[in-house]
Design goal:
By secondary structure, the protein is of the alpha/beta class. It contains ten helices and 17 strands. The strands form four sheets. Strands 3, 4, 5, 8, 9, 16 and 17 form a seven-stranded mixed beta sheet that branches. Strands 12-11-10-13-14-15 form a six-stranded parallel beta sheet, sandwiched between helices. The protein has a two-stranded antiparallel ribbon with strand order 1-2. The structure holds zinc ion (ZN) (2 copies). The site of one zinc ion has 9 residues, from helix 2.
Length: 338
């Protein structure tokens, strides 16, 4: 038997007991040890995640121990510590054929479109588990959110010394900053939360930080030797912030939407054209991004020790989760332990 936490309807979590998940041919059965909580889970719990249906088992930032492998040709062995690649792609569509499995036309994400990992066991295609024997369980569960940031940075193909602005200092924004710095960029963090900006300076090592206001453009020019950032990453998922982000890139610059909003984005076409901006979106991540993040963690190239601010046990999750929705809880990243 195994326990699962089901999001029955918005604001209702139910702990259930059911048969242990079956491990079908081609799959690996993973005993879940850590579940990272992210904005998607919070939005789903609140009932404001677009295209979301209930009941649903949430959870897509996972790490655990392999308990069974139902496949002959896999390097994965029983007892391996792993993270799960939660994006199930078709492998056949044009996006998949060109390696962009992250935006497969029929992509199904564990914990979003189908049941995820808020349970003691999950069985997933064996090529969707990645060995993380050299990392801690906490680190392994952070590979997914970090990969979202790493993917956005890869989309932007930064140069060494490139001037970069990252808007939004939530977990994804922090990941973008970390990997942009790793690429040699000069990174400025922007957020309305001054405490978060302090964290960016002390823990992430950004070059400078800025609170958005009427003087943002002037201040950015001061920080960047009279120029504006060449690449701007938008990681707030806030429509007002996204609309106003078009003003920040330099002539010929890039704007990358990492955050997603269920709304229309509007911008001034003359401004867009005058600068000949390149607008990019960034969605999920690929297996290559996961390997890159794993390696960066193994080689201590990025520091995430202070990302996890809150944790609780699996049993206490239903009673604790709503506390994490409150801004005063100051959650950066919360993790569930099993
Ligand atoms: Zn997430
Ligand atoms: Zn596909």
């Amino acid at each position: 038997m195994m326990k699962s936490i089901i999001c029955q309807e918005p604001y209702i979590f139910k702990m259930t007991n059911s048969e242990k998940t079956e491990c079908h041919p081609g799959e690996a059965l993973v005993r879940i040890k850590r579940i990272g909580i992210c904005g998607t889970d919070l939005h789903a719990f609140r009932g404001n995640q677009p295209f979301f249906t209930y009941p649903r088992i949430l959870g897509h930032e996972l790490s655990g121990i392999v308990e069974k492998v139902n496949s002959d040709n896999s390097e994965i062995k029983v007892g391996d510590q792993v993270t799960v690649l939660p994006y199930l792609e078709c492998g056949k569509c044009i996006a998949c054929r060109s390696g962009k499995t992250n935006c497969c036309s029929t992509l199904s994400v564990l914990g979003v479109h189908e049941d995820g990992g808020m349970r003691e066991y999950i069985s997933v295609p064996v090529d969707h588990v990645i060995k993380t024997n050299n990392l801690t369980l906490d680190e392994a569960s952070m590979i997914e959110p970090l990969s979202i940031g790493a993917h956005a940075v890869r989309r932007a193909s930064l140069r060494k010394g490139e001037k970069v602005l990252v808007i939004g200092a939530g977990p994804i924004g922090l990941a973008v900053m970390s990997f942009a710095i790793l690429e040699g960029a000069t990174v400025v963090a922007m957020d309305i939360n001054e405490e978060r900006l302090k964290f960016c300076l002390s823990s992430i090592g950004v070059f400078d930080s800025i609170v958005p206001n009427e003087e943002s453009i002037t201040k950015l020019r001061e920080m960047f030797n009279g120029e504006l950032p060449e690449t701007v990453f938008e990681a707030t998922g806030n429509v007002h912030s996204m609309n106003s982000s078009f003003q920040y890139p330099e002539q010929g610059g890039k704007l990358v939407f990492v955050g997603l909003v269920n709304d229309q984005i509007t911008f001034s076409d003359p401004e867009f054209h005058r600068k000949e901006l390149t607008l990019l979106s960034s969605r999920n991540a690929t297996k290559d991004d996961f390997y890159y993040v794993k390696q960066s963690l193994e080689n201590r190239k990025i520091n995430i020790n202070e990302f996890i601010t809150h944790r609780c046990t699996f049993e206490n999750l239903p009673s604790t989760f709503s506390d994490w929705l409150k801004p005063e809880s100051k959650v950066i990243k919360a993790v569930v332990e099993l």
